[in-house]
Write a structure and sequence with these properties.
Layout: H1 6-29, H2 46-52, H3 55-88, H4 95-107, H5 110-124, H6 130-154, H7 159-166, H8 171-182, H9 184-200, H10 203-208, H11 216-225, H12 230-270
Helix pairs in contact: 1-12, 2-12, 3-6, 3-9, 3-11, 4-6, 6-9, 7-8
C-alpha cells in the first residue's frame, strides 16, 4: 500500500478543515447560552426549545417540505419521461431543440430563471404562492432528474424489453413491469436530488413566492440580515444532523445490498 506523503496529508487536512470546521463551530455555538453567537457563555439547549416555539420558523419549514415533496415528484415524473424520449425515440424533428430546452436550466443563472418564471406566472395566476414555487422548482429540477435517468437508460439492456414485447406485453406494460423496476435506483436518485435542490433554493423561490408562502431558506436569509440568532444555529444543527443520518443510512443500505448481491452471485456460481 502506497503511503501518503506529507504534502497529501497537509492538503487533506486543510481541505477538510475548510469544509467542515465552520459546521463544527456552528454546532458548538448552537449550545451556547448567550444571545451573542460569538461569545461563549456556557452550555445550554435553550435555543432548541425556543426554536420549537417559533411558529414562523416552523411554518416556513412546513412550507419548504410541502414544496420539496411536490416539486420533486413532479420533476422526477417529467424528467423520466423526457429522458425516455431522448434516449429511446431516436432521431425526430426538433430533437436537438427539445434536448437543449431540457438541459438549459443546468447552465442558466438562477436569477434569470427566477425572473423569467415570475414574468410567466404573474399574468397567468391571480396570486403567487406555494403552487407557483412548486412549478418553478419542478422546472429547474426536471433537467437534473432527466440527466440522472438518461445515464441509466443509456446502459439499459433493451433485449429485456424486447423479450417482454415478444411475450405479449404492450409497450406500456413492458415499461411498467420491466424497464421501470430496473431503472428504479436512478429514478429514486433523481427524486432525492430534486428534493435536495428544492430544499436549498433561495433565489428562484424569492421571485415566485407570494403572501403566506415563505420557505425556510427565505426565512433564514431574512433573519440573518438582521443578525445571526442562536435559533438559526440550532436549526442548522438539526438540518446537519438529519443529513448526516440520511447519508449514513444510505451508505449502510448500499453496503448491505452489495454484500447480498455478492452472496447471491457466489451461490449462483456454486450451483
Amino acid at each position: 500500500m502506497k503511503r501518503l506523503s506529507w504534502f497529501n496529508v497537509t492538503s487533506l487536512t486543510f481541505g477538510f478543515a475548510f469544509l467542515y470546521l465552520p459546521m463544527v463551530i456552528l454546532v458548538i455555538y448552537s449550545f451556547n447560552s448567550s444571545k451573542l453567537v460569538t461569545v461563549w457563555a456556557g452550555f445550554s439547549t435553550r435555543w432548541y426549545g425556543e426554536l420549537l416555539q417559533n411558529d414562523q420558523m416552523l411554518d416556513a419549514a412546513w412550507v419548504t417540505i410541502r414544496v420539496a415533496l411536490a416539486s420533486a415528484t413532479l420533476a422526477t415524473i417529467l424528467g423520466t419521461l423526457a429522458a425516455y424520449v431522448l434516449v429511446r425515440s431516436g432521431r425526430f424533428l426538433g430533437r436537438t431543440l427539445f434536448g437543449g430546452m431540457i438541459y438549459a436550466p443546468l447552465v442558466m443563472p438562477e436569477v434569470i430563471t427566477g425572473l423569467s418564471l415570475f414574468l410567466l406566472f404573474k399574468p397567468i395566476f391571480n396570486q403567487l404562492g406555494i403552487h407557483t414555487i412548486i412549478l418553478a422548482h419542478a422546472t429547474f429540477s426536471m433537467c437534473y432528474a432527466s440527466v440522472v435517468v438518461s445515464s441509466r437508460l443509456v446502459s439499459f439492456d433493451r433485449s429485456l424489453e424486447e423479450a417482454a414485447l415478444d411475450l405479449g406485453a404492450t409497450p406500456f406494460e413492458a415499461f411498467r413491469l420491466v424497464t421501470l423496476p430496473i431503472i428504479a435506483p436512478a429514478v429514486i436518485s433523481a427524486w432525492l436530488l430534486s428534493f435536495t435542490l428544492s430544499l436549498d433554493d433561495l433565489v428562484i423561490a424569492s421571485f415566485t413566492t407570494g403572501p403566506g408562502a415563505t420557505t425556510l431558506p427565505m426565512k433564514i436569509w431574512s433573519a440573518v440580515r438582521l443578525g445571526v440568532s442562536p435559533e438559526i444555529n440550532a436549526l442548522s444543527t438539526i438540518m446537519i444532523g438529519i443529513v448526516t443520518i440520511g447519508v449514513i443510512t444510505a451508505s449502510l443500505a448500499s453496503k448491505r445490498a452489495a454484500v447480498r448481491r455478492a452472496g447471491e452471485e457466489r451461490a449462483a456460481v456454486r450451483t
